[in-house]
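Chain X:
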Amino acid sequence: MGGVVAGGGAYFSGASPPGITSRQTTQRYMKQLLFIASLLLGAGAARSQTSQSDGLLLHEQGHYDMALLLAAIFKKQVGILVLRRGTYSQQVRELFAGILQEIKQLEVQYDVETEHRKNAAAQLVWDQKIALLLRAAAQ
């Protein structure tokens, strides 16, 4: 029995799982996951602090960029994940949870090292590091 490729290249053995019937459905699901990730990581903070200093906005942009990093890594990893019939949902949840945990740890390190944007030199280093991580994840 052949497999069906759904969405981002994930391979399903047997029939497509319920709810994942087309590329459009998969894309809609990915958009929902990206939205959830941005909420979990507080990505909206950069938009809500327009009256704050440029330094604070730049720092909050780092948090937003980490939400984008989460999404990019997840998209890449789910695209190569071999999904098994009956456990695909758990596999995807576990993948997302693992990446989310790593990003949250990275965010804690980011806040500690930058002292929540007060350490300008560390902030510059982190800005470059985050940009590099985003570029690598997009490839």
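Chain Y:
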Amino acid sequence: MQVQKAQYIKSPRPSYKLLRHNGSAIPFPAPPPSTTAAGRPPHMAAQHGGSGNGNGNPRLHRLSRVLASSDQPPPPAAALHAHLVRAHAATPSAVVRSLLNRAIRRLSKPHPRAALRLLLLMPRLPVSPDHFSLPFALNAAASLQLLPLGASLHALALRLALLPGRLPVANALVDLYAKCNDLPAAHAALADIKAPDAVSFNSLLCAHARLASVPDAETLFAAMPSRTQVSWNAMVVVYVNAGDVSSARRMFDQMPTRDSTSWSVLIVGYCKCGSMRNAREVFDGMPAKNLVAWTAMINGYAQSGLPEASFAMFREMEAAGIEPDAATMVGVISAASQIGSMELAGWVGTYVDKKRIERNEKVLTALVDMHAKCGNVDEALSAFREIAQPDAYPYTALISGLAAHGHAKLALQVFERMQAQSVWPDPITFVGVLTACSHAGLVDKGLEHWEAMVKYYGMARRADHYACVVDMLGRAGRLQEAFEMVQTMPMGPHPGALGALLSACKTHGNVEIAEVVANKLFELEPRNTGNYIMLSSIYAEKEQWEEAERIRSLMKMKLPFKQPGSSWVENRQSERGRFPVRS
């Protein structure tokens, strides 16, 4: 089977070339005809006391100590090869082979690329891997998604007669193909196992769960001879990823036992679909709440537009003695950005520094968004500069925040840099750009971007884009153009665009257009008091007192009670509370 390298390799190509392997069969020597249980010929085991640690060779002993540690990667390949060649000259092959196989096993998880470099040095000595180390090599290739190399290891396992008899090798092969998303090959590898166990099935089941392949996962789950906790959890995951939370709950209820992953996955599922009441119910019933569950709830409340509940959950987590991580703080930062308080944003930023939270791209992007929305431009720019290669999300957050807080020209400069860096904007980016043009009075520039959305970027204009342009035209006094745009919107009149035009009518004293726009707003938003007050004010400024009183009477008739709003305030001790704000 020929494999297209670019189709499967997700790691950068230079890193793959570092392995110095072209995907062809690895020329390992055939295994010796007779070996002991330790993997060495009988006379070698006797000669070296069965230790295999290189005690008889000082050079190999030093190298053994280096490779025995998984804390640090081994020396560069060229230097390592030179050491091995010199050591091999005075040491039997079995000892070198044992050393490298142990090193591969130890390095495969913390340093998978280093483990594979060791594997690819073995043919040059020449020694070969054993049935203990080859599964670890396959795991290393799977973690890096190096499918061509994994296919070569598959061929090597067949040549060394490790398949289909060695179950750990066969299971690692299924896992390799599953993690590289070559599901037909994974199914074929599973079918070749004469007596598969639950581990054999779980790797493939987890792949179907990751891809939300519900029918395939259900078929595989039904065919399993035995099931582990991983199997049950994978089925909950597949339903959650497919958006079928009801089936996920049914599977959860059928579980013979549950671990922390079982509870956390179901909580994540409810949070994804916005069912925070159900998520809280499951969370409260969780015997031992882990960080994943706390993080899911904090992020779920934030994503559902409930920042107060998100912060309340965060305070509960702190009281329980659970330390947050980067994923947790993304939710907390998002909640702070929705509240919009500069003081609270400053507290959150200080908390991130104090707790030494990893400042990865997601955290930095969230910080940019929070500080920009709260008007702290310097902090937003500082966080943005920390992102090595910002994509559209941090650019958009920065542009939108700058545009909303009186830094329109700076927002447009950031957009120009975004274009220079060949970062493709999204529709939300253009909301920020058009807002910046509106606030800066750059009508012609704004209309250029308006046209570029369709002609250059191929984007469909949304209602919020129309609202920005209507606001831009209205601020410039071009009310007739704005009115015509509102009337020709493909999605029909929108409250955002109509509200912007009504505000412009008040600024420029245009009663005729204001009456038409306000009456439409009364239909779309009959309980929005701002529209009634705005039209009444327009009449009053023109000294049309009877009309002004008529609109106020209409408002009182339709809205006999006016609910107070609410706001958030923080004191110096960072205690947050709600208080009513009368308007």
